[in-house]
């Protein structure tokens, strides 16, 4: 760690403290400044309404921000340590979507006269989702990779259910939208009183456990031999972390970013000991959230909107992380180190391929001809159906294939099984461009929609390129840059969504990846693009195999790593842009199709790419068809159903 | 006349250096790991680097394999600065085996060894029968027949090491750099591997530069030994010049005694 860098960061810390002091002065109600706070704290006078307001709303809000930032950052730090992945977040193991499901179920199922604080259903939902994750990963001995995968699948799966419910019961669930974006508004000390004991105990537990925990860095086997029951330690700490996260999320909603970035900054500061890492992450996290919240308050007051702090955190944190990334030199290689359970098997490639192709063909025909209307199921084989349904089927098919290819490329390039095309922020760019259009009140037609989406995606690609150049596109830096970008862009989007704009529900449909609007031209454009780029990717399979050796060995056999990274990034960007512009952002396919291909024992790059492609197409076509007929006359976006169906299948594979 | 020319060529070829370090040094911020060094690595010769941990051996290997660039001075390969070569051309001349080869997920032995053919065929060139037979030969040479379709990650440490050596062999470069190639091997496999490398050196004229910890093995299988201490070359020469009590004391900082091998008569070192 070089001294100037540390100096800059210390200055940063001082500066943020100064900013906080200044902002408090500015944001205290009735322009009372610090003196009003002083009065409230030391000479509280209940007859003074100003002091009353400060005491009951302003101070609890500050306290909540500090507490939640601290807890989330600690949870993130431990989570990243146990999962050995620098992009893991406290919510990686399904807590957030579980809590949201709890909220949704609470609103929909509980009778209106049962006055339950929203905390309880949210917490029950979060606990349920986490237990599910544990249950699935337990079969494979709670290895980091399996925990991460099952966590992400459960998140997507439950997230899809949530979005479906929101599409159907939109009117009842607008409060969930605001909660989902994370609000810190308080009107008494009740939340603080509830949170403090619930958070203090598990956090103390984490500190007590830090010694056996830090031994886990040796890897599971070595830790076992020095007398640590790895499985038990992991289970206990993860439960504590999840408990902490669930408590925070249930109380204030989903506040992203703090949990990922605060531990990251701590590591950049060169803090090595786990106990110090945990503590310093906590302090940085609480400062970050407090700062974000203090900045949110005047903006929210000025615009009159209910601006969610959670979104603001990401909005402010993203540029900071980008700056930090640009300062640091990064190791050119990031292996998400893990003890792999060596259970590789050979499986015939061609028969599998053939079977998938046949399945794809049959399913496409079924999707073309079998439909449902008010009279029930029917089989229609005629020209009309071809006109009506073929474009959307082709759109789903090619988007699935394209995103599966992009996902495989991203995971191989970054050597990180949690990576997916969205991680780079390209699809967020496309989405944001459209959201901004909607916000400005431009009613745009289909072509303009595609054009604007492409423009947004291309600008994000440009930014990634520009930021990555300095570090030779090192995977670690690339991933974190992408996370920062997409978090920032998503934050803007969430702010727009919670503002209750009338176009929100149309956007929600598009954001879930829908095929309703796909025309013949779109399908042809998408199809030819996906075919060209996927073929190129498959032709480059030797590169993809070689980069798995790590930079040193790959260079030793004559691979030009820089060139390879550049070409792969361009391919990923092209595929993601195409699919997102036409169909909308799809989370599931890009993340899980590569894993599904691996679980079918297709390990080499060529086989994995082809299999993932076919699987992606198959899942999307099925999802599109089911979405059309499941809840007639409603239609569900294919992207949602692909998370649902694919998620269920993947969970079955993992538990098998 | 023709014969003379061939002999001449061979003579010239063998006397030209493969690598040449001109005042090359390496430092991380203010900490110098390798002092300015001048060394010649001759073609067709097995050179072994000796010295205790942290003496700069691995740093020197990293300069040769151009993972690190010298902070001052030059590293020349065939009279050309290493940085001027394209990645693929460099790979045709030099192959490198890191001390801890990465664990590869879902790669079989054959696939791993075939990676060695990449510099010859690039991303798109078809692998011919020639390539496949070279891959098979390389696997046979390290004694991994019957393991072709096994996944590298499922092999034992020694088998994994040999699979990587096979990849280096399939690469057919002029020079191979091995950073402690025997660290994961038992005594019989150590001997087997070093004998194989020696045989390749003698039959194909392969240039070998490696790091070894076992001084007796190093003396037995090398033509030239280079000893480093605190980033400086403190002794170099043929094994019989290094296998002396005073030189060994200088290298390892402890007293080592020697006795003649009962059959060959070469000196063998032991801890008295």
Automatic annotation (TrEMBL), chain A:
PANTHER family given in the database record: FE(3+) DICITRATE TRANSPORT SYSTEM PERMEASE PROTEIN FECD-RELATED, FERRIC ENTEROBACTIN TRANSPORT SYSTEM PERMEASE PROTEIN
Superkingdom of origin organism: Bacteria
Topological relation to the membrane, as annotated: Multi-pass membrane protein
Single Gene Ontology BP annotation: siderophore-iron import into cell
Protein name (database record): Iron complex transport system permease protein
Transmembrane segments: 7-28, 62-83, 95-112, 118-138, 145-169, 240-266, 278-300, 306-325, 349-370, 390-411, 423-444, 450-467, 479-497, 517-539, 569-597, 632-653
SUPFAM superfamilies assigned to the protein according to its UniProt record, in alphabetical order: ABC transporter involved in vitamin B12 uptake, BtuC (SSF81345)
GO molecular function list: transmembrane transporter activity
Alphabetical keyword list: Cell membrane, Membrane, Transmembrane, Transmembrane helix, Transport
GO cellular component annotations of the record: plasma membrane
Main location: membrane
UniProt entry tagged with the keyword Plastid: no
Family: Belongs to the binding-protein-dependent transport system permease family. FecCD subfamily.
Subcellular location: Cell membrane
NCBIfam families: PRK10577.1-2
TrEMBL record, chain B:
Membrane topology: Peripheral membrane protein
Repeat listed as a keyword: no
GO cellular component, as recorded: plasma membrane
A biological process from GO: iron ion transport
GO terms for MF: ATP binding; ATP hydrolysis activity
Domain of life: Bacteria
Compartments it resides in: Cell membrane
Listed InterPro entries: AAA+_ATPase, ABC_transporter-like_ATP-bd, ABC_transporter-like_CS, P-loop_NTPase, Siderophore_ABC-ATPase
Protein name, UniProt field: Iron complex transport system ATP-binding protein
Species annotation: Marinomonas pollencensis
